[in-house]
Amino acid sequence: MEISEITLRNKVVLITGASKGIGVAFALACAKAGADIAVFARSSLDNTVKLVKEKTGKDILAINGDMRKLTDIKQMIDFTIKHFGKLDVLVNNAAVVHISKITETSEEDWDRVIDINLKGVYFACKYAAEHMIPRRSGVIINLGSELAHTGAANYTAYSASKGAVFIFSQALAIELGQYNIRVVTLSPGPTNTDMCKPILEDPERRDLLLNKGVLYSI
After folding, report:
1. Active centre residues (catalytic)
2. Which residues are registered as beta bridge partners of 36?
3. How confident is the model at residue 6 (pLDDT cuts 50, 70, 90)?
4. Are 55 and 31 in contact (CB under 8 A)?
5. 50-97 confidence digits (pLDDT tens)
6. 184-216: string of b/e by CB count within 10 Å (b at 16+)?
7. CATH number of 3-187
8. Which of 81, 90, 99, 158 is most buried, judging by how many CB atoms fall within 10 Å of its CB?
9. Domains of the chain by residue range
């Protein structure tokens, strides 16, 4: 199906982690499909705003904040609803990866991964659901990972966080289904973004992924 065949006209989509990588691709694709877009990230969103404007002519709402802070997450939802009047789709894309042996992983490393990849996702869903339930309408898309299903050496904290996101999303889909709210998980494999740089810096490994057709570019 071509993107031109998909319509999100009159829909409001909020995307976290939208300063680079997959988040930018989501923002651009949804804007091309006609959605009103809000984007959230801790770092500057200027490039995302500029790209979407150049490619689609649409102005988007940029919100800065930290997925580790519940006040920022709640404000993200509140600002989106105040600006657009509603929230139809939440895309929980923000995430960090930590690569190390379990024997070398500190409590600080673990807390950072879990706080952003799992706790932040959980509470973004909570605050979105508070708005979506009375409307009996909405979609929540949580970004998982291939590693949620396979795991990988030296990715234990990241795999744990994404595995938890997967089963949490299944549970939430059951809980919110009665309100006509859909909850789904996307589990991408290696993608040519900054997050995958440690993998792609090895030319042999990069070529192997490309030859197998499992390295995605955006």
Report:
1. 158
2. 12
3. confident
4. yes
5. 999 999 999 999 999 999 999 999 999 999 999 999 999 999 999 999
6. ebebeebbbbebbeeebeeeeebeebeeeeebe
7. 3.40.50.720
8. 90
9. 3-187, 190-218
